[in-house]
Amino acid sequence: MIRPTEKQPFLPTEGIHNLRDYGGYAAADGAVVKTGLLFRSGQHMEASDSDLDLIESLDIRTIIDLRGTSERTSFPCRRHGDFAADVIAFDGETTSSPPHEGGWDKTDMTAEKARDRMIAVYTRMPVNPAMIDMFSRYFAALDTKEGGSLVHCFAGKDRTGIAASLLLHVLGVHKDDYVAEFLRTNDAPTQHILERQSLPRMRAHYGEIEPQAIRNLMGVLPEYIATYIAELERDHGSVDAYLAQSLGVDEARKARLQERFLT
Questions:
Q1: Cα separation of 164 and 181, whole Å?
Q2: Residues 40-87: pLDDT tens digits?
Q3: CB count, 10 Å around CB of 41?
Q4: Among 53, 47, 38, which residue's Cα sits nearest to residue 75?
């Protein structure tokens, strides 16, 4: 098992997609990634009052919002009345064509075109200056800030999925396991929330969309993260070299992160 227990990682929500704890994975030498500190999700625009109470109960001190300015403006997150977390966000755009906004040419969105579009997203992400900046700030926050954190984008699957995967790699989680964590998004019990938030705009742009195309756009495939890793390895030789050279995760920072998040 990738986790030492069968504990359900998804937290029950009414208006937030894909909220879950991404700790609990086995690492090297018998260590385990701590739970209760690392959370991930989609955006919080439709968070219910009970959702906000739940997030407040998690004692999250830092939120890393991987969305760009236009996304944050169009989909402002609701906050609890006692919200006091530090929010880290990018002043500008972090993606040129998020799937939930349509984007690209108005064409019949087939399953193959949807997959190709997402492959292009993962091909660009390693060299996207905004994402390099935000992933660097994500690791710096985890290294220096106390308490729990939550990383999110719009759907909590692409930008967020890569952020979580990179951290699990740094913590010594086996590649098979952090790929499984990446793919676990497809099991989220809140897919209806993402569809409600995304499908109207997508259909307004593309017209009717093939069911498999919707799955390729709103879920994740193994080749998405494989593409990202292949780009890192081609340009830097290894994931670790990319982390050190582009994101500031040197051996000293890696050791501090392992000391903090492993038990």
A1: 8
A2: 999 999 999 999 999 999 999 999 999 999 999 999 999 999 999 999
A3: 26
A4: 47
Strand order in the sheet with 148-152: 20-21, 38-41, 148-152, 60-65, 86-88
Question: What is the distance between the alpha carbons of residues 61 and 162, in angstroms, rounded to a whole number?
Answer: 21
Question: Range with the lowest mean pLDDT among 28-37, 81-90, 103-112, 115-124?
Answer: 103-112
- pTM as predicted: 0.94
Q: How would you classify the pairing of strands 60-65 and 148-152?
A: parallel
| pLDDT tens per residue, range 230-243 | 999 999 999 999 99
Q: What is the largest CA-CA distance in the chain?
A: 52
The amino acid at 44: H
**Please, are residues 157 and 192 in contact by the beta-carbon 8 Å criterion?**
no
Q: Which of 232, 148, 140, 218 is nearest to 185 (CA)?
A: 218
Which among 241, 9, 5, 19 is positioned nearest to 150, based on CA atoms? 19
Closest CA to 78 of 16, 132, 143: 16
Hey, is 128 helix, strand or coil?
coil
End-to-end CA distance of the chain: 17
Name which of 144, 170, 188, 179 is nearest 21 in CA terms: 188
